[in-house]
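User: Continuing from earlier, I have the next pair ready.

Assistant: Great, send them over.

User: Here they are, in order.

Assistant: Folding the first of the pair now:
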Amino acid sequence: MNHRGWLYVLFSYLPAFAVLALITQGFQKPVSAVWLLLPLAFAICFQIILLQCIFCRSIKDLINAIRRAINGDYRARFDCDESSPLKPLGIVYNQLMGCVESQTDELSENRILQNQMYENEKIYRSALELTCERVFEADLSHNRILYGYEKYAQTFPYLNTKIYDEMISAIAAHSVFQGDAKEFRETFARSSLLKSFHRLRTPEVAMDYRLILDDGSCAWYSASVIFLNSSSQTGLKIIGYIKNIDERKKQELEILNESQKDGLTGLFNKKVTESMIDGYLADKGKDGHHAMIMLDIDNFKYINDSFGHTQGDAALTHVSHQLQHLFRTSDIVGRVGGDEFLILMKNVSDTNALFEKLHSMQSEFHKIRLEDTSYRLHSSIGVSLYPDDDTSYASLFKKADMALYYSKAHGKDQFCLYADHYEKDGTPKSGVPETLPRPLRLLDTEEETGRPHNEA
């Protein structure tokens, strides 16, 4: 008990001492024990009255503290004397209010941050809507669209759901170009985005794709999805925006296409031809049978010198057009030198089909006429086979080139298969005649070629 408590106790006995002094005439006259009960009763009454005053005041202070807390003052505390019976209750109450104040401050800070985030999202969304065709927000945790569904429903009338995954699947099935639909669905599927944001920590996922328009044509669009926030209340929240990039994308593709093509003939240039063939043989074509065909125009220098370089360019252009016509779009056709062309004829079923294609090439070349001349083009051709002769681009190219020069060295205007005249290591086969068999030569006379037969 502190000093204030002792003072209260001493003060409660003062009335009893005063009564006792009065009865005993200043503690001089003895009295019976019965008379001593009177000052004792006074002491007990005064202690009861004093305790009631102290207790009532503590109760009043506690009630006031509670009322302040109810009115929002979470800093309200209850203080009482150490001797007060409400002291343990006061300690617990003050601890409770301390926790409430701490939690309230944290909630207030979170609410301020959420409000700021919400305002920032509104500003960001408004800015995107000025430059984008469509903007949406979604809660991936609950798989639902939060904002932007109405505009999507106007653009895609078949949509009838706000479930995010179902909306992505419907757009991929009905409006995305078939060649892009699978990648579109896999890129923006809910499971893919959750993996990108949670496991890979990717801040943004984007894809360029072709969208089918009302008239059946396609236009290039870019879709991007950005991670916004994640919490127990809102889940994983994202914002997506879609831009029309058709004009820019077509310009980029045109520039890319021009960089890959030979400027004169429109065929793939040497570097791209090599890259495409090498990539195909190492991947999709590694289990197939293919023919690498190399050809050049016979006596091309003679054409340039006799008829001029304009006619030489015309000859190259005519040959390139015939090659594009003769081969499938899946085959790879390129110009790899001045008058040299390289073709990868994919998935050759048998040798007869290859021979038929080679004969067709030479027949079509003979139909070409240079302007104001009767000169007919002819070419020498060399062929190597995958995988019979080799499996790498470099080796097949070298062996096709060897077969080509064998054709040129033995009369020109013919085709030669590498395997017919060389071993796999490049050494000439024994017993091979100095000249090729006659059936491989299509033109022999000066009348047919429009030039002396022995002209180089």
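And the other member of the pair:
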Amino acid sequence: MEFLLAVQFLTKIPVTVRGSVDEKRMARSMAFFSLVGLLLGACAAALHALASYVFAPPVCNLVALAFLIVITGNLHGDGLMDAADGLFSGRPRERMLEIMRDSRVGSHGVTAGVLVVLAKFVLLGQMPAAMQGVALILATTLGRWSQVYGAAFYPYARPTGGTGGFTAHVGFREMFYNSLTVVLLTLYLLRFHGLILLIAVLAGTALLEWYVARKIGGITGDTLGAASECIEVLTLAVLLVIFTKSDLIIINTSILQEVLKWVPNFIK
């Protein structure tokens, strides 16, 4: 039930959730955010692999990134743009929150959205083709983990509530399950190199969420979406360094095949 609720919230996949849904159930569903990110990344990696039989690597990267935007309804991209408009507006805290709630997108938001998509495309393109699928899986998984971190450690910034008000109920349980998912996945794929990625993502997430909380007194749904997008970029940047500056490059595409076989067993 809670897993399906997480799928329904984070994607456009048509799933049916039975029973009533309140803020506490929504908060409990965040325990599965990283797992949903893993599944999204695995689907993007599979699509990337299929496209590689027909298209050149840049086209495959574009297809995979476009798939993630469509399947999520650009949920986090929209949050990124709204958050950028508010946080970089130079206005008082209350006005920042009002700007984030505005459905219109300003220059800061457009710039942030374009830069993030461009960064993902360029970083993926600079990686060895055999590693691009692994990078997609890790980026989507760790990006969703960053949302849970923000919800667990910082209060909701809007006193009157909002779409992310349920995050007030997020705590140790949700953080534990998400952290377990990302640690096992990262170490399984990267061995001890995974520690480098985990430390970088933890530091980046902590710094970003601290900055947001300092600006607006907490987090909102928009800032959590923005964090997810930024941590995806950070993940790809760190992976690019790992893949090109270490002997990890000797890993071939068989590791991706192992992951795709492992995912159904993990769900069971």
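Worth noting for the second one:
Residues 2-6+31-156+164-261 form one domain. Residues 248-253 have pLDDT under 50 and may be disordered.
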